[in-house]
Amino acid sequence: MTLPSLSVLIYTPATPGASRRLVDVGTSLDAPAVQPSHGSYQLQRLVPSMRLLTWQREGARFDLSRSGRIHVWTGRELTAAEPAPEGLPQAAASLEPDDVTYLEAYLLLQNRHGNDLNDADGTCHDAHSR
Predict the structure, then answer these.
(1) In Å, how far are 49, 79, 87 from 91, measured between CA atoms?
(2) Mean pLDDT across the chain, nearest whole number?
(3) Sign of dihedral through CA atoms 96, 97, 102, 108?
């Protein structure tokens, strides 16, 4: 399955300087019929970049680390990652802001947030034990 185009619903509070918030993500969403008086909703369409499509075609996995950073893995190698204040491993490319935005929505849609790669066996596991 190829990476889908996504619809995201974003809420912006009316308060000056307030941060925008992702409200919903799906492959097809409808805009709210009525705008609230305390802010506004905006429907945006996100399309995966050629870079993301190429990585996926090559078998890459997309995950969020426990610290909330997006990682792109090819096998056991970190191919790319969301930029971090402490920098990236030398071999890892920095993800573009549009790729970060797309992958955040995609991973939320896949319900894979909070996962991290288990170095021992190359599988994903939850941060919390069951």
Answers:
(1) 21, 7, 12
(2) 83
(3) positive
pLDDT greater than 50 at residue 46: yes
Q: What are the phi and psi torsion angles at 71 (to 5°)?
A: -125, 145
Q: pLDDT band for position 66 (50/70/90)?
A: confident
Query: So where are the chain's domains?
Result: 6-126
Strand ranges (E), 1-130: 6-13, 21-26, 39-46, 61-64, 70-74, 77-81, 93-94, 115-118, 123-126
Taking only the tens place, the pLDDT of each residue in 110-128 is 874 444 444 444 444 333 3
**Tell me, what DSSP letter sits at residue 95?**
P
pTM of the prediction? 0.75
Measured distance CA(128)–CA(6) in Å, rounded: 29
Q: Distance (Å, rounded) from C-alpha 4 to C-alpha 27?
A: 7
Q: Which of 95, 28, 20, 24 is nearest to 63 (CA)?
A: 95
Residue count of the chain = 130
